[in-house]
Amino acid sequence: MERLTERERDILLKLTELYIKEGEPVGSRTLQKVYSLPFSPATVRNVMADLEDKGYLYQPHTSAGRIPTDEGLKVYINSLFFKLGTTDETLVSRLIDYLKSTNVSDRDEVLAKVLDFLRSFTGYAGFGVNLVESLTVESISLIKVSSEKLLMVINFKPDYILHKVIRAKLPEGELQKLSKTLTYKFRGKTLSEVKRELIEEIDSLRREINAISFKLNSQILKALNEANQVEIYGVSSLVDVVSGDLKRMRELLNLLEEKSLFLKILKEFLGKKRKVEVILGSETEIDSLAPFSFVLGKYSVGFKSSGIVGVIGPKRMDYSQVIPIVENVAKALSVILNK
Questions:
Q1: Is the CATH code 1.10.1270.20 the one for domain 6-81?
Q2: Which of 191, 214, 226, 333 has the most CB atoms lying inside 10 A of its own CB?
Q3: Is 304 helix (H, G, I), strand (E, B) or coil?
């Protein structure tokens, strides 16, 4: 994209702000009047035409005003990041009090309550995940729940417990011995290291045709691959955005059911330096997400980024309000989980 002059940048930011507020294409006369700009509507119109040529604005109809392209929207969003860093003590206290009132302590339950809080506070879908790849295993227990099902309980450090039901048929007397063996083998290793070792063992067992161990390891690996459970609260608000487009709605519902693509988006964000980020749907290259934006914040337990919270909403959301809310909710969640 071509660089912007100071005047072009100022007009682009003001036009985008007004478009987000009103939801209508913005004309030069309206922009000049609303912001009392120190130059004529004709000058504003010329600058807007230059911004369109550079790819930051477009005109949906010949007689209409202009609206920001995704590139123009990113310029506006990035300008808001300079205002980050101020803690909203009222919001943080309100969230902490809300969580205390619900009397939950399990990390997954805490995340669920936080996402519901975000949904009700912003009006957009709350969205997040506890990422456990970097947590280290403390112990593994296998408990029989039926003739062909076991409950696998993995205690991680820092404080996190994973429960998964797996399909396996083992004698009752073998479970305690196997639990001790698994604990001894994987204690002190991260979840990603455990999965890597299981894959290597499964390949070896396949060659040895050790059917029982092969099946058990395969079931454990399947359960661990499902450990990062993406949670979304307020799905109806997403469906409303695409309610007039049946094809896109069907694609969106399939995505919401599968969730693996959402997890991919979150993991990519986790690798970035920013603690808060906005990802436009068009940047994901998934057509059904084009009308949406993700506002995401990282939270930490100890020194490691442990998960992500945020909202998904229409591309024309009030970023100046939502970005600080997500930033402060992520901060509050870090405080809560580190106590």
A1: no
A2: 333
A3: strand
